[in-house]
Amino acid sequence: xxxxxxxxxxxxxxxxxxxxxxxxxxxxxxxxxxxxxxxxxxxxxxxxxxxxxxxxxxxxxxxxxxxxxxxxxxxxxxxxxxxxxxxxxxxxxxxxxxxxxxxxxxxxxxxxxxxxxxxxxxxxxxxxxxxxxxxxxxxxxxxxxxxxxxxxxxxxxxxxxxxxxxxxxxxxxxxxxxxxxxxxxxxxxxxxxxxxxxxxxxxxxxxxxxxxxxxxxxxxxxxxxxxxxxxxxxxxxxxxxxxxxxxxxxxxxxxxxxxxxxxxxxxxxxxxxxxxxxxxxxxxxxxxxxxxxxxxxxxxxxxxxxxxxxxxxxxxxxxxxxxxxxxxxxxxxxxxxxxxxxxxxxxxxxxxxxxxxxxxxxxxxxxxxxxxxxxxxxxxxxxxxxxxxxxxxxxxxxxxxxxxxxxxxxxxxxxxxxxxxxxxxxxxxxxxxxxxxxxxxxxxxxxxxxxxxxxxxxxxxxxxxxxxxxxxxxxx
Length: 476
Description:
The protein is mainly α. It has a domain at 262-476. Helix content is 78%, strand content 0%. It is globular and about 70 Å long. The two termini are 27 Å apart.
């Protein structure tokens, strides 16, 4: 199964690039999405096929938390793949341009899969760097001046972050000289033998390095520009899967500190960064002028919430896993819907979008429902994850932090809600004469993702609960 994930998509992408045929492009893209969903489902059933050498499989493996993050990525990528058919048509891409898009996005997905499946810290670092290189090409795909600027900013900041993460790996190697391995299984088993000073110092560097990719404040400067300038399906992947894969890398490092009984140190940093991310997103959300940047700052907020969930220790871990799932699907729906809005109004400015429900009713309702999902209106699961995090504050005896948490959430909810409802219910500048109805692929992915979220929020299937619970149980 791992072989299908890491080998088949690049092969299909290469065939697409060589053939430069629109039908083959679509088969390669949708086929790769189907393969990832199939692998996630089969792994969920604990079925494995081996046809690669054992030494290869030692470096890539599905564990409980890796399977969970991979399943979320597969869902998001499937939605993005279907929406990309609308993106191809909307931008009148040639067969060659489509082929370039397909191979770039497939290489990006393989790089993220490598991060999720890697069993070795240095190998994980290599794939994190690969996500930077492959996603940079996608951010610049439309070749505009603004996208070029965003791409260079992204590459520069993330490269500095990755370099700091590499320093962290070196420091960890020094501290774990007696262990003699950077495989996560060995680091976990012999965590008590790692020198605490070097382990704390290495965590600080790895935290900043991977935190740069995750997009938490104050190391989030690349995120608003990249998310707003990338094509909408790429923005969905960046927010719904790239941030998650880097977050998983940090969680694997966090587990080393937990097993070394140094979690008080790492939890404090996670909580501090999480609240700082909430503060930054709340401030910017009140004066937002670009709706795609609004979604980017929402990603900063939600990654901060996940940090807080993990930083609260055992009581907040399930909430963090649930929030990861809910944020990824909600934000994917939002970014894909923002692509419809950009198609309808040819502008990313909030002030230029009015009367969305009149001009494109399907997009208008998707926009509203997706925002209700991301801000956590019942019965969407983000309401449940936030409730569990507030409960975790009380269980940890830190109820005063729950008040601060709730305050930031209210500010963000007000900022996003007022912006979105003004866009949806304002007077249409075209007086209703420019009513638009797009292809089914412009709406279907968001509808499916929102239905999944409603099912999980109203009556979570026990299979989904078990998957999340096992992911949270990764931490000892």
